[in-house]
Design a protein that fits this description.
Layout (H helix, E strand, L loop, with lengths): L1 E6 L10 H14 L4 E4 L19 H10 L5 E4 L2 E2 L5 H14 L6 E4 L4 H7 L6 H18 L7 E2 L4 E2 L16 E4 L6 H8 L2 E5 L4 H18 L7 E8 L5 H14 L3 E6 L5 H15 L3
Parallel strand pairs: 1-2, 1-11, 2-3, 4-5, 5-8, 8-9, 9-10, 10-11
Antiparallel strand pairs: 6-7
Helix pairs in contact: 2-3, 3-5, 6-7, 8-9
Length: 289
């Protein structure tokens, strides 16, 4: 099992020290054996974490800052809403992160859901059907930009005269693509067609998670994709009263279902108790490979 630290909250006790607090957190994770670090791609805070007016940083700027203060962990969003960036510009942002971090970037992407922040800042937020069409086209654009094909792309929603991307990413054949969400009809089919990883929520429970993985396998069979070539990742939360034994048990349950990377949010991550618990007691006992 590989562990990933997910950072959804930037409301720290000393707002003036947000940068240095974040630096200390990510350096501890980097040096302590976490495989990956992820941030949310939101403009307003989401209700699951707190009120909309809590601190929220721009994701790719933040990832660039994190890259400069780490040397090993993989870096990406969990996940970018497809409507927030034109696909060509998104591919350039991820490429830039990959090049400047030495090949540590991945693209996390989904169909977007938080209408309030989009409307609030004037970003487009079309109906769900159209967002899924845009998601598929964005996946196609990114894969083309990360290839030797510099030619045009003509889609229903996006038209690019030149899919030129120089420099190309360091990651080969391209930065891994993770599609977030568990929709069985459309999301998991897009995973089977285009992605290197999926991401599901631990709170769904083992029965539902097994059902979704079975659905993903059927989609892979339908499109001729090797199911085992897709990394299965899970997102869960560690509460302040958690123990190492509890986290390890949850990890073993996830591993038995076939999950290979476990993203954790750690309560108030600026409180070092949980972060130190992961680094000192959980990761050494579970392993990261």
């Amino acid at each position: 099992m590989r562990y990933a630290l997910h950072l959804p909250n930037y409301t720290y006790p000393a707002p003036h020290a947000l940068g240095t607090t974040l630096r200390d957190i990510v350096q501890t994770a980097d040096q302590g054996g976490f495989h990956s670090l992820s941030v949310m791609d939101h403009f307003f805070q989401i209700e699951y974490v707190g009120p909309a007016d809590m601190e929220m940083l721009s994701s790719y700027t933040t990832l660039g800052y994190i890259a400069a203060h780490t040397s090993r962990v993989k870096l990406g969003t969990l996940v970018t809403g497809v409507v927030y960036r034109h696909p060509g510009l998104l591919a350039k942002a991820v490429t830039t992160l990959d090049v400047l971090s030495g090949g540590r970037a991945y693209l996390g992407i989904g169909a977007a859901w938080f209408e309030r922040e989009a409307r609030g800042l004037g970003a487009p937020f079309p109906p769900l059907k159209e967002r899924f069409e845009q998601l598929e086209e964005t996946l196609q654009v990114c894969r083309q930009m990360w290839s030797a094909d510099n030619g045009p792309y003509q889609g229903r929603h996006y038209q690019l005269a030149e899919t030129l991307c120089v420099p190309q990413p360091i990651s080969r054949p391209h930065p891994p693509i993770l599609v977030g969400g568990g929709g069985e009809r459309r999301t998991l089919r897009l995973v089977a067609q285009y992605a290197d990883a999926c991401n599901l929520f631990e709170f769904l429970g083992p029965d539902t998670l097994r059902q979704k993985l079975d659905t993903l396998k059927r989609h892979c069979d339908d499109v001729g994709r090797d199911y085992d070539s897709i990394e299965k990742t899970l997102l869960g939360r560690v509460t302040p009263d958690a123990s190492a034994a509890e986290i390890l048990e949850r990890s073993q349950v996830a591993a038995h279902m076939g999950f290979q990377r476990f993203y954790f949010t750690l309560g108030d991550v600026f409180d070092r108790k949980l972060l130190d618990l992961m680094v000192d007691e959980v990761i050494p006992r579970m392993g990261t490979a």
